[in-house]
Amino acid sequence: MIDFDQINSEIAALVDQKLAHHLENINYPPGIGQAMRYSVFPGGKRVRPVILLATSRMFGGCDTNALPFAVALEMIHTYSMIHDDLPAMDDDDMRRWRPTNHIVHGDAMAILAGDALLNLSFEIMADHCIHDSSLHNLRAMSKIAKYAGVGGMIGGQVLDMRLEGADATADELEYIYTNKTSALFMAAFGAGALAAGNCDADGALNEVGRKLGLAFQIKDDLLDSSGCADFGKNPSDEKNQKSTYASLYGAKRAEEIFADLSTSAVQTLKTFENSDFLVALVNRLVNRTW
Ligand code: GRG
Questions:
Q1: How far is the CA of 179 from the centre of ligand 1 (A)?
Q2: Quick one: pLDDT at residue 217?
Q3: Predicted TM-score (pTM) of this structure
Q4: CB 281 within 8 A of CB 50
Q5: Partner of 8 at 20 to 30 A CA spacing, among 43, 57, 210, 250?
Q6: Domain carrying residue 23
Q7: pLDDT digits over 9-56, tens only?
Q8: For residue 220, which atom of ligand 1 is closest to its CA?
Q9: Where residue 187 sits, what CATH number does that domain have?
């Protein structure tokens, strides 16, 4: 029997320490360090870096080798939130129970803070690869680059923006969710396995990440539209006239799709030895009420 909370906080603390190490000395030019740290600390659930490190551990990898990728992934996730909240995108003024980055630091500094986090994430991964020079680590970095890019999260965001105010088809909506949300989960599982030297699990872990991301996003929509969950931001799908699984299929069918995806992600994960922690994490995520 594992102690989920203990392991989760232990991994999140490792990630936080390393994030602080990379960010605490950015003090010049004035303002940029504050804007970067504002969105990274105290941060959110740290789900993606925790998945990455836990996946590496599942395959016998060492934390020291996986940590640079975990930290980089959290920086990429954070930059995407900062940019997503900007007036030119979702125009949100609350995130994680406090004002969004551009409300506090201004639009220009928020854009630069996002850019700086993205660049720093690649500097950290590249430096680690230079230091270690293993092909597995380069593959892990390449996976993160791919899933964060036009063929992943950015691509999903582009279609999401283009279809604002229009009715998305089922295929378009699946594309948006798979890329906007699932891509960073796929990167977390995939890069964790690669950093541990495992290339064989890629296909199965991709499916776990894809299904978890879709389920996670459908849950997000259902919470957003219910209006009764307090998850630290203002409901925005309706304001931005976005199609969601609930608007496309109706809440009942969306719940069913969500349940199928969650069950299937867990079943696949369970086929791996030592997957107890990750199985518990996926169960917590899909059953969250915030
Ligand atoms: C700007 C390139 C670019 C991409 C933006 C991340 C994103 C794409 C948009 C944010 C809005 C959104 C609904 C994203 C889907 C993923 C999602 C539900 C993010 C929230 O992730 P959590 O719950 O956040 O892990 P915390 O705050 O815990 O880190």
A1: 11
A2: 94
A3: 0.96
A4: yes
A5: 210
A6: 4-286
A7: 999 999 999 999 999 999 999 999 999 999 999 999 999 999 999 999
A8: 18
A9: 1.10.600.10
